[in-house]
Each structure stands twice: as structure tokens, then as C-alpha cells.
Specification:
7-stranded mixed β-sheet; about 350 residues; alpha/beta; Type 1 dockerin domain; 21 strands; single chain; about 20% helix; Leucine-rich repeat, LRR (right-handed beta-alpha superhelix); 5-stranded parallel β-sheet; 5 helices; elongated; 3 domains
Length: about 350
């Protein structure tokens, strides 16, 4: 019995040693200069998990011994007060949460295209940050990415960005424009809250504007919204009292502006918009155009966006009997003071 126990004890000891060796061979920690790395010998890759230096200019290594540096760990530089500039190598694929949060001296940063993952709050509270080239190959700008970056005024986003998540530019009090992103479909909650954004032109990809997205933007005066947009929260422009929405007749944005008592301007639909007053689009202004409006008001017919644009001769954004009467006055050669008969710009 004692021999059996001894044998069992030896076997267990060997198994434990094998397990410990397996773990240590696939993951270990090393220190090189001011950096601590976590090494994965299975993939031959390294993660930077800690920086203990106080340099103003920091260049991250692309390799440590024979291991490729691919990851910047969570909170890597968080709270560092010395760093002004950081150079990120093209080997980096992932930047962890809060990697640069509360770095109060950093002034500019460039993220390479090789980066495919960025954690939330990555630059939050970087109060000196002024310029960012965000070339990361990701589809969503993370939540709180630049929250409270008071001096941020110059930013370029990757064309791969499809969503700007909640609080991304919250309280960026020097930001005067929405970074261009051709494929942008959604702007998250409070994304541009309390910024100096003056104008926003959404592309045809845009569908959703969330709660408080542009709230408290005192300088915001023009917002161009496409026909494709399908959801705008009622608080999206709260306390942005100077805003005017530029939209197309009977679009969701048009309905939203009317329902929320926001000033709006109806846009023309391009070269084929025709002439003002030619409701039926036959190229001639006649009594039929006025009759067509009356039929639409009586809900006997439904006008298309193009027809409604041509029919709204007084450009008040509402189709009414006044439009039909104005066309009749025009046909009777009475003064209307309206550009009936002229091409729609």
C-alpha cells in the first residue's frame, strides 16, 4: 500500500511539472528597458502590458527578442503625465481599453492601418490631445474614445468606420466638424454632445442618429440628412437652438423636423426636378397642375417627392390650396411674387 502511494505521488508530481512547463513555455513575462511584456511562445507574439518610463517621446518596439509585438494591453499608458508623442509600429493589431486614458500631455497620435481592434475609452481625458490620424481598420469608433479631449480639433477617421459609438467625442470643446466617414451608418448617444460642430452632412449610408448625439452644440447651424435616414431620436439636437435641417420633402428627416419644431429647408432632387408649378411634370404649366394639387389634398391621388417639390410653389414645405391658387393666378397672368415657371435649382 505504501509503495502504491509513493508511486501515485511521483506520478502526480511529474504531471504537475509537465503542466507547469506547458504553461511557462506558452506564456511568460519579460522586462526590457522600460517595458514589461507578456510573451506567447506558441504564436511568437508579445503583448506590452506595462510602461514604467517617463520619456516625453516614446517609440514602441516592433519586436522583443524573436517575438513580434502585436498588442498594447489595457491601460498601458493610463495616467502617464510625461508622454507627448508615441510612435506605434505597424506590427500592432490590437490596442486595449483605456490604453492612453488620462495621459494629460500627449498632443498627437497616429494609429496604423494594421490595427484591427481598439478598446473603449482609449484616449479619454487626454486633455492636451490636438491631432489624431485614426487609420485603424475597424468598423466602429469605440465608446468614449475621445471623451473630454478638450483641445482635440484635428481628426481623420478611417473610411472603414461605419458607426461612431456612444460618447465618442463627448465634450470635445474644440472640435468644429464631424470627421468624414463615407460609410457611416449610425451616430451613437451623446457622440458629439457639447462640441463646437458647426455643420454635419450625412452620406446616403446614414440611417440612425441616437439620443443627444448633437445635443448642446451651440454652434451647430446646418445638418444635411439623406432620404435613407430612418431613425432620429427626439433629443438628438436638444439645446442646439440654431440648427436647421436640410432634407427632402416627405422624407423621415422632413417629418422629424416638423414634429420637433426644428427649422428646415427642403432640398431639390437634382437636374430632373423640373420647373416650379409643373406638378404633373409634362413640361407645361396648366390648369391640370392646379387640379392635380387639389386631387392630392382630397387624397384622390398621391404625389411623388418630385411632384410635391414642383407643386410647393410658395416653398413653405406644406402642400396646400394656396399652392393650387397661386398656379391659377399665374395662369391668369396675375402677380404672385413667386418664381412659378422657373427651373427648380
Amino acid at each position: 500500500m505504501r509503495i502504491t502511494r509513493k508511486i501515485l505521488s511521483v506520478v502526480l508530481s511529474i504531471l504537475m511539472l509537465i503542466a507547469m512547463f506547458s504553461i511557462s513555455s506558452s506564456a511568460m513575462t519579460i522586462y526590457v528597458e522600460d517595458f514589461r511584456f507578456s510573451i506567447n511562445s506558441t504564436t511568437n507574439e508579445a503583448t506590452i502590458v506595462e510602461y514604467i518610463g517617463d520619456d516625453t517621446d516614446v517609440e514602441l518596439p516592433s519586436k522583443v527578442y524573436d517575438y513580434t509585438v502585436t498588442v498594447m494591453g489595457d491601460s498601458l499608458f493610463s495616467g502617464n503625465k510625461s508622454i507627448v508623442n508615441v510612435s506605434i509600429p505597424s506590427t500592432i493589431r490590437e490596442i486595449g481599453e483605456s490604453a492612453f486614458a488620462n495621459c494629460t500631455s500627449i498632443e498627437m497620435i497616429t494609429l496604423p492601418q494594421t490595427v484591427t481592434s481598439v478598446g473603449k475609452s482609449v484616449f479619454m481625458n487626454c486633455s492636451a490631445l490636438k491631432k489624431v490620424e485614426f487609420n485603424a481598420n475597424i468598423t466602429a469608433l469605440p465608446k468614449s474614445a475621445f471623451q473630454n479631449c478638450a483641445l482635440l480639433s484635428d481628426i481623420v477617421l478611417s473610411d472603414t468606420i461605419e458607426q461612431i459609438e456612444d460618447l465618442a467625442f463627448y465634450n470635445c470643446q474644440s472640435l468644429e466638424y464631424v470627421p468624414s466617414a463615407e460609410n457611416l451608418t449610425r451616430i451613437g448617444q451623446s457622440a458629439f454632445y457639447n462640441t463646437l460642430v458647426k455643420e454635419f452632412e450625412a452620406s446616403s449610408s446614414m440611417t440612425t442618429v441616437e439620443r443627444y448625439s448633437f445635443a448642446n452644440c451651440k454652434n451647430l447651424n446646418r445638418v444635411y440628412l439623406p432620404n435613407e435616414i430612418t431613425s432620429i431620436d427626439s433629443t438628438a439636437f436638444k439645446n442646439s437652438d440654431s440648427v436647421t435641417i436640410y432634407c427632402y420633402r416627405d422624407s423621415y428627416a422632413h417629418t422629424y423636423a416638423v414634429a420637433n419644431s426644428i427649422d428646415f429647408v427642403l432640398l431639390s432632387l437634382g437636374e430632373d426636378s423640373g420647373i416650379l408649378g409643373d406638378t404633373d411634370g409634362d413640361g407645361i404649366i396648366s390648369v391640370m397642375d392646379a387640379t392635380f394639387i387639389q386631387q392630392a389634398l382630397a387624397m384622390f391621388v398621391e404625389l411623388s417627392n418630385e411632384q410635391s417639390l414642383r407643386a410647393d410653389v410658395n416653398a413653405d414645405g406644406v402642400l396646400s390650396i394656396i399652392d393650387a391658387t397661386s398656379i391659377q393666378f399665374y395662369l391668369a397672368q396675375l402677380e404672385t411674387g413667386l418664381p412659378i415657371g422657373e427651373p427648380i435649382a
